[in-house]
Design brief:
This protein is mainly α and 139 residues long. It is built from one helix and no strands.
Length: 139
């Protein structure tokens, strides 16, 4: 059986005082420390989530800008190729016309030389014919 003497009540009072002090100096600080740590953890997770979302947005923007830059570069390249082809075609036509003009000029000079040679040969033939006629007439 349990004896309820004055020590039991002293131990009960001692236990209640101990619980009160333990609650005040241990439980509350530990609980507030754990709550603060949980709040910091939640804050860090939320910050990391926001940073991840911002990174995804920036990545999307970067890809879009890169795509636009590639399209623009392609357009510029096609434009420059078209211009170069046009200039090459123009230069080729110019060279062709110059060559045709030079060919016509050379043909004209050749024809002139031909006519001059024919005239020279005809005069030479006349001289030789006159010489032959003169020698035949002397003999």
């Amino acid at each position: 059986m349990i004896n309820l003497d004055y020590t039991f009540f002293l131990q009960l009072i001692n236990f209640i005082v101990f619980l009160f002090l333990f609650k005040k100096f241990v439980f509350k600080p530990v609980r507030s420390f754990l709550q603060e740590r949980e709040q910091k953890k939640q804050s860090w997770l939320q910050s990391a989530s926001q940073d991840l979302q911002e990174t995804d947005n920036l990545k999307g923007n970067y890809r879009e800008m890169l795509s636009d830059a590639r399209k623009k570069a392609s357009e510029i390249r096609e434009t420059m190729i078209g211009e170069a082809r046009g200039e090459a075609s123009h230069s080729l036509e110019q060279v062709r016309s110059e060559q045709q003009a030079k060919l016509a000029q050379d043909k004209a000079a050749l024809e002139k030389d031909k006519l001059s040679a024919q005239d020279s040969l005809q005069q030479e033939v006349k001289k030789l014919a006159d010489m032959i006629v003169t020698r035949v007439a002397k003999s």
